[in-house]
Design goal:
Helix content is 53%, strand content 13%. The protein has helices spanning 11-22, 38-42, 51-57, 68-76, 99-111, 125-129, 141-154, 166-194, 199-207, 214-224, 234-250, 256-270, 282-290, and strands spanning 3-7, 26-30, 46-47, 60-63, 90-93, 115-118, 121-122, 133-139, 155-160. The structure holds NADP nicotinamide-adenine-dinucleotide phosphate (NAP).
């Protein structure tokens, strides 16, 4: 797997494709907004005009797309992956989607004789840039083993979780926890501020105790400054809460904390914060406290 395709050069895909290039992989890239490929071409990537053209050229193609609709359209749409996938070729979708979307893609690829692996990732922009992602793979075990050299470049640890859907579910559970934590953190920062405490002191106190974590440490200082440069866009976090809640529905599991967090992220989107970092949900807690 030395010559690979890469579809989707957003925040994550760009960093992951750059790491592949830096570690000697020959990479052919495609992005819906083609101009975003230019930076990769300068670093040595080839460009193809459609997903089908990437798959035609490469035996293995990775994808990192925004959501289920994007993941499905890149595979099943015009000039999509399905037009060129065939026996001997493989497709590895690293986007965060629900298990049903992943299964539909898996069935589509299998119907043409191709191999499929889902491999969503835990970790954000910086871990993607540093090759420190955690890869949550499921599907074709042989393909997982073939893809390990590429995963080792993009990530610090890979898990193989069994049948298609398990990677998607694991990723949704992780991000549901993260989204709920971010809301509790935002409300705490707002409550500290509103009740006359110094939020910076709250960060110092949190960092010394049992609930210290890299997310609070990394996001806290910029949240206090109302600064939300997008590492993980809020619209994607809300998508993940929505998909995790649907998984809860399927399993008749009551998840009131996650449901409340989803509402806060929806409110954030309605406030025009969808493209800001998901920590911008802090503006939602500030907004509700300012009305009292
Ligand atoms: P992003 O910066 O918003 O990039 C999204 C990518 O999807 C872009 O390449 C975009 O193309 C493409 N896209 C969107 N709709 C499309 C469509 N209908 N057809 C074809 N391409 C389409 O998102 P990201 O942060 O890189 O995230 C990508 C995936 O990784 C998401 O599933 C996200 O949940 C997941 N993830 C993100 C993070 C993170 O911290 N950012 C961490 C772990 C997992 P254009 O450039 O043309 O818009």
């Amino acid at each position: 797997m030395e010559e690979v395709g890469f579809l989707g050069l957003g925040i994550m895909g760009k960093a992951m494709a750059i790491n592949l290039l830096r570690h000697g992989f020959k990479v052919t890239v495609w992005n819906r907004t083609l101009s975003k490929c230019n930076e990769l071409v300068e670093l040595g990537a080839s460009i193809a005009e459609t997903p089908a053209a990437v798959v035609k050229k490469c035996n293995s193609t990775f994808a990192m797309l925004s959501d289920p609709a994007a993941a499905l359209s890149v595979v099943f749409g015009k000039d999509g992956v399905l037009e060129e996938i065939c026996k001997g070729k493989s497709y590895i979708d690293m986007s965060t989607v629900d298990a049903e979307t992943s299964s539909r893609i898996s069935e589509g690829i299998a119907s043409k004789g191709g191999h499929f692996l889902e491999a969503p990732v835990s970790g954000s922009k910086k871990p993607a840039e540093d090759g420190q992602l955690v890869i949550l793979a499921a599907g074709d075990k042989g393909l997982y083993e073939e893809a390990l050299p590429a995963f080792d470049v993009m990530g610090k640890k890979s898990f193989f979780l069994g049948q298609v859907g398990n990677g998607a579910k694991m990723k949704l559970v992780v991000n549901m926890i993260m989204g709920s934590m971010m809301n509790a953190f935002s409300e705490g920062l707002s409550l500290a501020d509103k009740s006359g405490l110094n939020p910076q002191t709250l960060l110092d106190v949190l960092d010394l105790g049992a609930i210290a974590n890299p997310m609070f440490k990394m996001k806290g200082p910029s949240m206090i400054e109302s600064n939300y440069p997008p590492a993980f866009p809020l619209k994607h976090q809300q998508k993940d809460m929505r998909l995790a809640l649907a998984l809860g529905d399927e399993n008749a599991l009551s998840m009131p904390v996650a449901a409340a967090a989803n509402e806060a992220f929806k409110k954030g989107r309605s406030m025009g914060l969808g493209d800001a970092d998901f920590s911008a949900v802090h503006e939602v807690s500030k907004d509700s406290s300012s009305k009292n």
